[in-house]
Amino acid sequence: MLDRWSLIAVKPPLRSIAKQMLRLGISANHISLFGFFIGMLAIPALALQHYLLALLFIALNRIADGLDGTVARLSKPSEQGAYLDIVLDFIFYSGVIFGFAMAAPQTNALPAAALIFSFMGTGSSFLAFAILAERLKLNSMSYPNKGFYYINGLMEGTETILFFVAMCLLPNYFPILAWVFFGLCILTTTTRVIGGSYTLAKLEKQSAE
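The structure corresponding to this sequence follows.
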């Protein structure tokens, strides 16, 4: 929901850094893989309850996630790059929640499991529609620079980052934050399934006519 505004705000600094990366011969895929490795370090940091350190790893991962796409657009976007970007993002998101579950299993395990379950809904509804949108040659007007059709939703990347920051700064409130996040993800999945189904049915009807 907030991505369209946050992307505008971070675009100029990311573009400046990306140009420097290209001069150094650093590719978008290199940044994606490096960012993923840094992001995975958040899991043991969370498990050991080093929440501020974990927040640093999460922030670096998100910066890398913004940089890889910018570098790709300034050079030559590839299907491999788009694939790595989305797959590694989803693994990272679930990994962070897994880290919180290990930090305090007695209080965090159930809400963490519920939240990862809800991630399956947001992720599958997002990716399934992207596959069909590519087949039907649909273009996303909200996110024209994405390497795939980006279907909107209540919970997107910016909201996820904000929840992760809140969880790291207020780890004792993780169960409450996770349940709120869970509810919003379920709402996002519901709207995407309904909206996506309606859009596809409408397109099929139009093509039949």
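The radius of gyration is 18 Å.
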